[in-house]
Amino acid sequence: MLDDLAVTEACVDAVRLATASKKALDVLEEMGLDPSDAVAVIESLGDLDVTPDAHIAWVFRKDRQNQGPSRFSDGSVPVLYTALEIETAQAEMAHYHLPMTPSGPVYLRSYRVAFEGTYKSLIELRTTHLFLTAERETGAYVECQGLARAAVAAGLDALEVPSARHATGRCFPIFSQQSVVSFDPGGYVQFEFDESSNSWRARSL
User: Fold this and answer.
1) Helix, coil or strand: residue 96
2) N or C: fewer beta carbons within 10 Å in the chain?
């Protein structure tokens, strides 16, 4: 399937949501919040002190012990999951990584990912290759993982694929560390659980 698609070599701006790269109290100061009134924020953020470069190194570490199976990796292929729209990143994060039994708000940070490299777009295949957005139980992940391995074997740095969680969204899984030119921290995002819809709602802070 990949053989029939054109290769694009370009610079792409993507977004990733991840834990804050600063200690919780430093984040509160940036948000303009009073630590004494923001216990939930501190509990959500933890007490991390991880640089953006360290985050990228963690994703692409060679021992592969940090990532389990996911849509585009069986655990053997490093993947930096990004999206081309903030709404898509929020929808994907809410589905895959936020707890189903929330105890309070969750706070994450957005990162601007500057990509330079080669990729192929599968966006036009959304309606003909349903496994691209189908659930794990259907065997779709196995097919997507095969695509990722084929992309890496072909020397591609990334794929542009339809989002399974945002109807018009585009995800951009990146497979090579050298194609990530920069990974710059941006604003914060608050997720709150909406019991009426049984889903997480996101808003930028």
Assistant:
1) helix
2) N
CB 119 within 8 A of CB 8: yes
- Residue 109, SS3? strand
Strands 8-18 and 106-121: antiparallel
* Residue 31, token pair as written in the block: 């948000």
User: Quick one: pLDDT at residue 121?
Assistant: 98
The tokens for 199 are: 């889903």
Q: Which helix (H) or strand (E) holds 46?
A: none
CA distance 143 to 131: 7
Local confidence band at 43 (pLDDT 50, 70, 90 cut-offs):
low
Tell me the pTM. Answer: 0.86
Q: What is the DSSP letter of 23?
A: -
Q: How far is CA 121 from the centre of its chain?
A: 17
155: alpha, beta or left, given left = phi > 0 and alpha = psi -120 to 50? Answer: left
The helix, strand and coil proportions of the chain, stated in percent and rounded to the nearest 5, come to: 30, 30, 40
Burial (CB count <10 Å: 0-12, 13-18, 19+), residue 17: buried
Question: Integer distance in angstroms from the first to the last C-alpha of the chain?
Answer: 41
Joined together, the tokens standing for residue 156 give 């591609």
pLDDT, position 181: 97
CA distance 184 to 85: 16
pLDDT over threshold 60, residue 168: yes
